[in-house]
Give the backbone structure.
Amino acid sequence: QSALTQPPSASGSPGQSVTISCTGTSSDVGGYNYVSWYQQHPGKAPKFMIYEVTKRPSGVPDRFSGSKSGNTASLTVSGLQPEDEGYYYCSSYAGSNNVVFGGGTKLTVL
Amino acid sequence: QVQLQESGPGLVKPSETLSLTCSVSGYYISSGYYWGWIRQPPGKGLEWIGSMSHTKSTFYNPSLKSRVAISIDTSKNQLSLKLSSVTAADTATYFCAKGHTANYYNFEYWGQGALVTVSS
């Protein structure tokens, strides 16, 4: 069982927006602004999409945005495109020199 | 462009030690940042194993700490992972990754991963 809880699946039509949640506790997501998000296509390495809750690394489209409220972080993908389909994982610093991941969410573009 | 490539045995026997190497190109490990290992069991999510900085500062997942050792060889520009006393639960794709900014919580560049199966 993963330390952070994500919905197993999410979906949306091209052009729509979809939000994926990542729920932890006050010891990880709620306690630090060190939430990251990764996109992974089947058989590929994860791609770094969001860090420190809201920041986008260079090259990541601004259609991807992150936020946090209490112990829940969220990734929103606006203007869905077919290539956005894949798995999305959140991670957080969890104190005591530990890093935890969510179980992953499969995003389907209908 | 930073590139990472994992290598090592694809099959390890139970109770033995898993050893993997990550070769880095496009960036000198000695120049900075943290370098980490993350694994993914087949069909499952990601698990952080541990990270080491260019100054050899090291952090390990508490659940694996007693069995894990990460090292850096700056002369070869490589990162290594050793996981002892493996069981079938350690079967996974193992990724090496370069950290982002000055901390070890984020992973900006990843290798393609190496599948390691633990079986007799």
Q: What stands out?
A: The interface with chain A takes residues 38, 44-48, 51, 59-62, 95, 100-101, 103-113 of chain B (CB under 8 Å). The radius of gyration of chain B is 13 Å. Residues 68 and 83 of chain B are 5 Å apart (CA to CA). The longest strand of chain B covers residues 18-25.
